[in-house]
Amino acid sequence: MLNQRLLHANRDDIDALQMLLEQAPGYSLTIQNRLPAPGDAEQALLDLPPGKTMDDKHFYAYLLHDNVIGCADLLRGYPEPDIAYIGLLLFAESHQGCGYGTLALENLRAQARHWNCGTLRIAVVEKNTQALKFWRRAGFAELYRTPAPEYTGDAVVMQATA
């Protein structure tokens, strides 16, 4: 499995991400109670918290035989300088449960360490029980829960060593 960085200004990257999101409709149904919509990929590539720039955001596509099978969004130095924040780790439903998530997480951990970020953090919508199990198996521990009114449940904020 190879990875390549996706860029918000590249139409081919936006289209590839949109196609991937449409190959994982269960994710959007679980966390937003809707199917992936046009524009979701572009929004994902542009989303940034206050104080961060596109230089801090690294959005990756994971490829198998030149086909995009997954993606990850990693943000450098958020919410603290020594933390790398995972905004998304998602694989097409046909490629879930095959070990690709674990391989991708190792890639994200290596990138975080390269940035001198010793910690990885993620927020998972509580109704996404499959994702919560994955992150717990990967060594992530719950820090706290916070309301997430734009989603189908509270956000479970989790953290692990990079």
Automatic annotation (TrEMBL):
Residues 4-162 form the N-acetyltransferase domain. Keywords: Acyltransferase, Transferase. Pfam families: Acetyltransf_1. The keyword Ligase does not apply. It comes from the Bacteria. One of its GO terms (molecular function) is acyltransferase activity, transferring groups other than amino-acyl groups. This is GNAT family N-acetyltransferase.
